[in-house]
Amino acid sequence: MDEKKYFKLSKELSEIYLEIKAILLLSEDEDINQRIILTCINELRNAFDHTMKTFSEGESLEENFKKAVGHLYRAGFDAYEVISISIIKHIQDIRKNFSFEAIVTAYPDYYKKILPTIEKIKRAKVRARSNKTVKDNVSPEEHFKEYEKIVKDIIILKEEMDLHITGIKDAQISIR
Predict the structure, then answer these.
(1) How far, rounded to the nearest angstrom, does the alpha carbon of residue 138 sit from its chain's CA centroid?
(2) What CA–CA distance (Å, rounded) separates 160 from 115?
(3) Using CA atoms, how far apart are residues 175 and 50, in angstroms rounded to an integer?
(4) What does the alpha-carbon distance between residue 142 and residue 162 come to, in Å, rounded to a whole number?
(5) What is the pTM (predicted TM-score) of this model?
(6) What is the DSSP string of 120-139?
(7) Which ranges of the chain would DSSP assign to H, the alpha helix?
(8) What does the pLDDT look like over 89-112, one tens digit per residue?
(9) Cα(87)–Cα(96) distance, rounded to whole angstroms?
(10) Rounded CA gap, 63 and 92, in Å?
(11) Closest of 10, 63, 39, 64 to residue 128, by C-alpha
């Protein structure tokens, strides 16, 4: 075993793991039911399995690290999916609880910003699911970063929407 190569690949894997772990923790916070997502745990288990295979004779070091990285990114996709589902539900609940007029009075950009981003995240989730096993020339990291950007955008929009909730409530009262 080439120790320098092993150390380099282990360091890269560790950095990806720490990034994905932070996303998993965020998904636990975002999920009001505090469910542990089985798919995330399974992907982490598979990543660990491939990492351990790097110690076995006859197993390809690079191939197993590559597979471990793929499983980590799939765990990240799954965690981001939990986050996006939770945020979309939060936004939909606001829409159900308040009138259109109250929402746009307090937050005029609601229909320009929020709704298009929700549609964008729904389409991105479909692409993410179909790209979990990468067969094109795009790396798992590139697919993941594309999806991550959209989820981060919707997180920002949720925060922005929450800043307007008091105004929406006030507008709802004054409309009645």
Answers:
(1) 18
(2) 13
(3) 60
(4) 30
(5) 0.83
(6) HHHHHHHHHHHTSS--SSS-
(7) 3-30, 38-53, 61-97, 100-106, 115-130, 140-163, 165-175
(8) 999 999 999 999 999 999 999 888
(9) 14
(10) 43
(11) 39
pLDDT, tens digit, 9 for 90 and up, residues 19-62: 999 999 999 888 776 666 788 889 999 999 999 998 887 778 88
Using CB atoms within 10 Å of the CB of residue 81, give its burial: 0 to 12 exposed, 13 to 18 middle, 19+ buried.
Answer: buried
Share of the chain above pLDDT 70, in %: 90
Rounded-to-integer distance, Cα 133 and Cα 46, Å = 14
Q: Are 67 and 50 in contact (CB under 8 A)?
A: yes
What are the boundaries of each domain within the chain? 3-175
- Give the separation between CA 10 and CA 65, rounded to whole angstroms: 8
Query: Residue 69: which of 127, 25, 11 has the closest Cα?
Result: 11
- Both tokens assigned to 46: 């598979």
Assign residue 57 a region (left: φ > 0; alpha: ψ between -120 and 50; beta: otherwise). beta
